[in-house]
Amino acid sequence: MSTVLLVSQLLNGLQLGLVLFLVAAGLTLVFGVMDFINLAHGVQYMLGAYLVAMCVGFTGHFGLGLLLGLIGALVLGIVLEWLVFRHLTRRDHLEQVLGTFGVILVVTEGVRMIFGTAPLAMPMPVALSGSVTLFPGLNYPVWRLVIIAVGLAVAGLLWFLVHRTRLGMLVRAGSTHPGIVSALGVNIDRLFLFVFAFGAMLAGLAGAMAGPLVSVEPTMGDNVLIIAFVVVVIGGIGSIKGAFVGALAVGLVDTLGRAFAVDLLRLVMDRSAAATAGPALSSMLIYVLMALVLGLRPSGLFGPKKA
Amino acid sequence: MARMSRLRSPGAIALLVTLGFLAALAVAYVQDSTYWMATLARMAALALSAVSLSFLVGQAGLVSFGHAAPVGIGAYAVLIAGEFGVREVMIVLPLAFAAAALFSALTGAIALRTRGVYFIMITLAFAQMAFYVAASLSAFGGDDGMAIAGRSTFLGERILRRDHGLALLAIGLLGVGLFVLGRVTASKFGLVLRAARDNETRVRALGLATYGHRLAALALAGGVAGLSGALLANQAEFVSPSYMNWHVSGQAIVMVALGGAGHLVGGVIGAVAVTLLDEAIGHYTEYWKLGLGLVVVGAALLRGRGLLRRIVGGQHD
């Protein structure tokens, strides 16, 4: 395999990983603070992409559209929390799965009714739509580099928020000792609202960033949701650091697996067998990774000691 | 209360459910409605799968988010056996049971190391693996799936070819499944499962192996789900990886939670309610999932207790 291919696939994996991180960050915080399993998080990713696509089309300016779309995603997150999620936080996991699965059905069908099933075109800012020569022989799309930059910036911001602010201290404390935090007079419901809405906005941002690369359609959140869960569980529930490491691992394993599985299998089996087993194996790799991690460390890489 | 408890005995409940389904089937047969006979067969098969999941969720406290996997494996057992010329129910059903139970036991051996949300997620991951393996079986349809060679035969007779024959088999299996799982629930084994769900430490202190009990429960429920998949494959005469889509697992959880996880029969109620809701709303609008979703969200917000307990009360789960 050539260096060019390897480097571009590594960058692709990094980019996928950072998109996953944006989705998983909110998910893991909501999990950690409230022990709340939110299946509807993928819906927020989808809604973000739709809102931003709509606002960009409306204003005709990408930056302004992105800002308006993200505010919209934040507001929708608050509305959903107020309507549904806050009533589910103190129930058992079965009811949370039930309620949030229902939200998926409602919102997905609602979006399908309004926008139809046809994918929506997501315009990319013209200045960022070209590609850049990283080194001779490797032209890489600028937009993907932008995603990497945004993902790293958000990771840095989150690290600062969680580890260097009072709010972050409460979030960290809430994820390990929720009872004590609330006994100390912290309004844990308001903390949850804040974390939830912020997570919804990050998921929306991820949807908006990925929008120009994938097709914006009502079910786009489904796969991302499942993979984001894999990320959260690998990293350990409630841990931003775990979500970051898990997201990069999943992004790289998935991308490199898809790119090289057939070639690698060909070393040990014949051509046609490798051609059939390769795609299946590469789709499965992240789940194998997750099963391995959980088999060895039942509460994830950076999760609390007791699951 | 003595009469109530006799009514709640596994035999009585299985009998009531079977008779209810049989009555509905008789009406459909007299009306000569192949549509309703097919729907009843599907409903009974889905109810069987929901009952087995209810056994896991309600009794053992194991919320599996991968129940579509053993169902799909049962379906693929029918497809693959058919391709090798084996279509006899007496062989195909045990095969479907064994394959699905084996899968559940193997994946369960790892999954049971985890708890709570982690367990939900790792069962989902294993189901996704099964999904991708099925999608890669190019000899058996790959991504698109393929039609089965023909419906199964019963002792060499092709009585399942007619929809009422298949519906009878599905209803019979549902009755047997409810009875057997009900007896298991009422047995000492079921007691240990419930006790371990409520307080694992104490059960361990009594010297009982919670891990082994749970693993056996997973294998049993998986096997029953496999039977349900074999029925569904026969009903649709088509098998594809979409049997193992995670939405199917989600829907199974919806059925269990909607009907109430406290009692096995809640699975039947949930499966019937969801299927009827599909049919009823699907009749008026293509966006039927919106209606289902609203009902599901509403149920999650309002109840906490499940339809059954709303109606007849019942033990604490």
Automatic annotation (TrEMBL), chain A:
GO annotation terms (biological process): amino acid transport
Topology of the protein relative to the lipid bilayer: Multi-pass membrane protein
GO cellular component, one term: plasma membrane
InterPro entries named among the record's database cross-references: ABC_transp_permease, BCAA_transport_permease
GO molecular function, one term: transmembrane transporter activity
Subcellular location(s) of the protein: Cell membrane
Residue ranges of the TM segments: 12-31, 43-60, 66-85, 97-122, 142-162, 191-214, 226-253, 274-296
Pfam families (UniProt xref): BPD_transp_2
Domain of life of the source: Bacteria
Record flagged with keyword Membrane: yes
Record-stated family: Belongs to the binding-protein-dependent transport system permease family. LivHM subfamily.
Protein name stated in the entry: Branched-chain amino acid ABC transporter permease
Organism: Azorhizobium oxalatiphilum
Automatic annotation (TrEMBL), chain B:
Listed GO CC annotations: plasma membrane
Transmembrane segments: 52-79, 91-112, 118-142, 163-184, 215-233, 253-275
Major location category of this protein: membrane
Pfam name, any one: BPD_transp_2
One example GO MF annotation: branched-chain amino acid transmembrane transporter activity
Membrane topology, as annotated: Multi-pass membrane protein
Assigned keywords, A-Z: Cell membrane, Membrane, Transmembrane, Transmembrane helix
Subcellular localization: Cell membrane
Name of the protein in its database record: Branched-chain amino acid ABC transporter permease
